[in-house]
Design goal:
aldehyde-lyase activity; transferase; Transaldolase_AS; TAL/FSA
Length: 217
Protein backbone atom coordinates (compact mmCIF):
# COMPACT_ATOMS: atom_id res chain seq x y z
CA UNK A 1 0.00 0.00 0.00
CA UNK A 2 1.19 3.50 -0.83
CA UNK A 3 1.07 6.24 1.81
CA UNK A 4 0.20 9.77 0.74
CA UNK A 5 0.35 12.57 3.32
CA UNK A 6 -2.65 14.86 3.44
CA UNK A 7 -1.12 18.20 4.38
CA UNK A 8 0.63 21.30 3.07
CA UNK A 9 2.96 21.56 6.09
CA UNK A 10 6.52 21.18 4.81
CA UNK A 11 8.13 20.13 8.10
CA UNK A 12 5.58 17.35 8.66
CA UNK A 13 6.08 16.02 5.12
CA UNK A 14 9.87 16.14 5.47
CA UNK A 15 9.85 14.18 8.73
CA UNK A 16 7.82 11.32 7.26
CA UNK A 17 9.63 11.47 3.93
CA UNK A 18 12.99 10.97 5.67
CA UNK A 19 11.62 7.72 7.12
CA UNK A 20 10.43 6.45 3.74
CA UNK A 21 6.78 6.88 4.74
CA UNK A 22 5.79 9.22 1.90
CA UNK A 23 4.86 7.92 -1.53
CA UNK A 24 3.01 11.12 -2.44
CA UNK A 25 1.15 14.12 -1.06
CA UNK A 26 -2.41 15.38 -1.37
CA UNK A 27 -3.34 19.02 -0.88
CA UNK A 28 -6.53 21.04 -1.27
CA UNK A 29 -7.53 24.70 -0.90
CA UNK A 30 -8.37 24.20 2.79
CA UNK A 31 -4.91 22.75 3.56
CA UNK A 32 -3.20 25.49 1.56
CA UNK A 33 -5.18 28.11 3.50
CA UNK A 34 -4.16 26.48 6.79
CA UNK A 35 -0.50 26.68 5.77
CA UNK A 36 -0.90 30.43 5.18
CA UNK A 37 1.21 30.34 2.04
CA UNK A 38 0.82 30.97 -1.68
CA UNK A 39 -0.54 27.90 -3.49
CA UNK A 40 2.09 27.88 -6.25
CA UNK A 41 4.97 28.48 -3.84
CA UNK A 42 4.06 25.81 -1.31
CA UNK A 43 3.12 23.27 -3.98
CA UNK A 44 6.48 23.70 -5.70
CA UNK A 45 8.31 23.23 -2.42
CA UNK A 46 6.39 20.01 -1.77
CA UNK A 47 7.14 18.75 -5.29
CA UNK A 48 10.85 19.45 -4.80
CA UNK A 49 10.80 17.49 -1.54
CA UNK A 50 8.76 14.44 -2.59
CA UNK A 51 9.48 12.16 -5.54
CA UNK A 52 5.95 10.79 -5.85
CA UNK A 53 2.69 12.36 -7.07
CA UNK A 54 1.59 15.64 -5.49
CA UNK A 55 -2.11 16.35 -5.91
CA UNK A 56 -2.85 20.03 -6.47
CA UNK A 57 -6.53 20.96 -6.67
CA UNK A 58 -8.22 23.29 -9.12
CA UNK A 59 -10.47 26.03 -7.75
CA UNK A 60 -12.88 26.41 -10.68
CA UNK A 61 -16.20 24.60 -11.12
CA UNK A 62 -16.60 24.74 -14.92
CA UNK A 63 -14.72 22.33 -17.17
CA UNK A 64 -12.90 24.85 -19.36
CA UNK A 65 -11.49 26.78 -16.40
CA UNK A 66 -10.61 23.56 -14.57
CA UNK A 67 -8.62 22.46 -17.62
CA UNK A 68 -6.85 25.82 -17.83
CA UNK A 69 -6.05 25.78 -14.10
CA UNK A 70 -4.90 22.18 -14.35
CA UNK A 71 -2.47 23.05 -17.13
CA UNK A 72 -1.17 25.94 -15.03
CA UNK A 73 -0.63 23.67 -12.02
CA UNK A 74 1.16 21.15 -14.22
CA UNK A 75 3.79 23.78 -14.98
CA UNK A 76 4.91 23.70 -11.35
CA UNK A 77 6.67 20.32 -11.53
CA UNK A 78 6.70 16.99 -13.34
CA UNK A 79 5.17 15.12 -10.40
CA UNK A 80 1.99 17.21 -10.21
CA UNK A 81 -1.32 15.35 -10.26
CA UNK A 82 -4.28 17.59 -11.05
CA UNK A 83 -7.10 17.18 -8.56
CA UNK A 84 -10.67 17.77 -9.78
CA UNK A 85 -14.06 17.30 -8.09
CA UNK A 86 -16.37 14.46 -9.03
CA UNK A 87 -18.87 16.55 -10.95
CA UNK A 88 -19.86 16.31 -14.60
CA UNK A 89 -17.55 19.22 -15.38
CA UNK A 90 -14.83 17.60 -13.31
CA UNK A 91 -15.15 14.44 -15.37
CA UNK A 92 -14.87 16.48 -18.57
CA UNK A 93 -11.69 18.06 -17.25
CA UNK A 94 -10.40 14.64 -16.17
CA UNK A 95 -10.96 13.21 -19.65
CA UNK A 96 -9.19 16.10 -21.38
CA UNK A 97 -6.19 16.16 -19.05
CA UNK A 98 -5.80 12.39 -18.92
CA UNK A 99 -5.97 12.20 -22.72
CA UNK A 100 -3.09 14.68 -22.74
CA UNK A 101 -1.07 12.22 -20.67
CA UNK A 102 -1.44 13.91 -17.29
CA UNK A 103 -2.25 12.31 -13.93
CA UNK A 104 -5.65 13.23 -12.52
CA UNK A 105 -7.03 12.64 -9.02
CA UNK A 106 -10.85 12.75 -8.97
CA UNK A 107 -11.91 13.72 -5.47
CA UNK A 108 -15.08 13.92 -3.35
CA UNK A 109 -16.25 10.45 -4.33
CA UNK A 110 -19.15 9.06 -2.29
CA UNK A 111 -20.53 6.23 -4.44
CA UNK A 112 -19.30 3.33 -6.55
CA UNK A 113 -21.28 4.72 -9.49
CA UNK A 114 -19.24 7.92 -9.28
CA UNK A 115 -16.03 5.87 -9.10
CA UNK A 116 -17.05 3.94 -12.20
CA UNK A 117 -17.57 7.18 -14.12
CA UNK A 118 -14.18 8.50 -13.00
CA UNK A 119 -12.45 5.34 -14.19
CA UNK A 120 -14.19 5.59 -17.56
CA UNK A 121 -13.00 9.21 -17.81
CA UNK A 122 -9.39 8.09 -17.33
CA UNK A 123 -8.76 9.05 -13.71
CA UNK A 124 -5.37 8.04 -12.33
CA UNK A 125 -6.74 8.09 -8.77
CA UNK A 126 -10.24 8.03 -7.32
CA UNK A 127 -10.59 9.50 -3.82
CA UNK A 128 -13.52 8.05 -1.85
CA UNK A 129 -14.07 9.96 1.40
CA UNK A 130 -14.37 7.42 4.20
CA UNK A 131 -14.65 9.70 7.22
CA UNK A 132 -17.32 11.94 5.76
CA UNK A 133 -19.52 8.91 5.06
CA UNK A 134 -18.98 7.70 8.62
CA UNK A 135 -20.06 11.16 9.80
CA UNK A 136 -23.54 10.61 8.35
CA UNK A 137 -23.83 7.06 9.71
CA UNK A 138 -22.85 5.30 6.50
CA UNK A 139 -19.99 2.79 6.34
CA UNK A 140 -17.15 4.32 4.38
CA UNK A 141 -15.42 0.94 4.14
CA UNK A 142 -18.36 -0.52 2.24
CA UNK A 143 -17.67 2.08 -0.45
CA UNK A 144 -14.02 1.00 -0.67
CA UNK A 145 -15.16 -2.63 -0.99
CA UNK A 146 -17.68 -1.78 -3.73
CA UNK A 147 -15.15 0.21 -5.76
CA UNK A 148 -12.54 -2.55 -5.39
CA UNK A 149 -15.03 -5.12 -6.66
CA UNK A 150 -16.14 -3.00 -9.62
CA UNK A 151 -12.62 -2.09 -10.67
CA UNK A 152 -11.39 -5.68 -10.37
CA UNK A 153 -14.37 -6.98 -12.36
CA UNK A 154 -13.35 -4.93 -15.38
CA UNK A 155 -9.64 -4.42 -14.96
CA UNK A 156 -9.75 -0.66 -14.47
CA UNK A 157 -6.29 0.76 -13.73
CA UNK A 158 -7.58 3.72 -11.72
CA UNK A 159 -6.06 3.48 -8.23
CA UNK A 160 -8.29 3.64 -5.16
CA UNK A 161 -6.97 6.43 -2.94
CA UNK A 162 -8.78 6.14 0.39
CA UNK A 163 -9.26 9.67 1.71
CA UNK A 164 -10.83 11.44 4.68
CA UNK A 165 -8.89 9.05 6.91
CA UNK A 166 -9.68 9.76 10.56
CA UNK A 167 -8.07 6.87 12.42
CA UNK A 168 -5.48 4.11 12.27
CA UNK A 169 -8.36 1.63 11.91
CA UNK A 170 -9.36 3.35 8.68
CA UNK A 171 -5.85 2.68 7.37
CA UNK A 172 -5.85 -0.98 8.42
CA UNK A 173 -9.32 -1.63 7.03
CA UNK A 174 -8.39 0.04 3.73
CA UNK A 175 -5.32 -2.19 3.51
CA UNK A 176 -7.38 -5.32 4.21
CA UNK A 177 -9.87 -4.45 1.48
CA UNK A 178 -7.15 -3.65 -1.01
CA UNK A 179 -7.14 0.11 -1.47
CA UNK A 180 -4.08 1.03 -3.51
CA UNK A 181 -3.30 4.20 -1.57
CA UNK A 182 -4.33 5.95 1.62
CA UNK A 183 -3.92 9.65 2.25
CA UNK A 184 -3.94 10.73 5.87
CA UNK A 185 -2.81 13.59 8.10
CA UNK A 186 0.70 13.16 9.51
CA UNK A 187 -0.64 12.66 13.04
CA UNK A 188 -2.76 9.67 11.99
CA UNK A 189 0.15 8.02 10.16
CA UNK A 190 2.43 8.55 13.16
CA UNK A 191 -0.25 7.13 15.49
CA UNK A 192 0.10 3.76 13.74
CA UNK A 193 3.20 3.10 15.84
CA UNK A 194 1.31 3.34 19.13
CA UNK A 195 0.28 0.29 21.17
CA UNK A 196 -0.18 0.04 24.95
CA UNK A 197 1.65 -3.30 25.11
CA UNK A 198 4.64 -1.78 23.36
CA UNK A 199 4.70 0.98 25.97
CA UNK A 200 4.29 -1.54 28.79
CA UNK A 201 7.05 -3.76 27.45
CA UNK A 202 9.41 -0.83 27.01
CA UNK A 203 8.79 0.32 30.58
CA UNK A 204 9.69 -3.16 31.82
CA UNK A 205 12.87 -3.25 29.73
CA UNK A 206 13.91 0.17 31.01
CA UNK A 207 13.32 -0.90 34.61
CA UNK A 208 15.50 -3.98 34.12
CA UNK A 209 18.22 -1.95 32.41
CA UNK A 210 18.28 0.49 35.32
CA UNK A 211 18.29 -2.28 37.93
CA UNK A 212 21.14 -4.14 36.22
CA UNK A 213 23.04 -0.92 35.45
CA UNK A 214 23.39 -2.04 31.81
CA UNK A 215 25.26 0.39 29.56
CA UNK A 216 26.23 0.05 25.91
CA UNK A 217 27.91 3.43 25.36
Amino acid sequence: MKFFVDTAEIDAIAELNNLGMVDGVTTNPSLIKKSGRDIIEVTKEICDLVAGPVSAEVTAVDADTMIAEGRKLLEIAENITVKVPLTWDGLKACKTLSDEGHKVNVTLCFSANQALLAAKAGATFISPFIGRLDDINLDGMELIEDIRTVYDNYGFETEILAASIRSVNHILDSARIGADVITAPPAVIKAMVNHPLTDKGLDAFLADIKAADIKIL
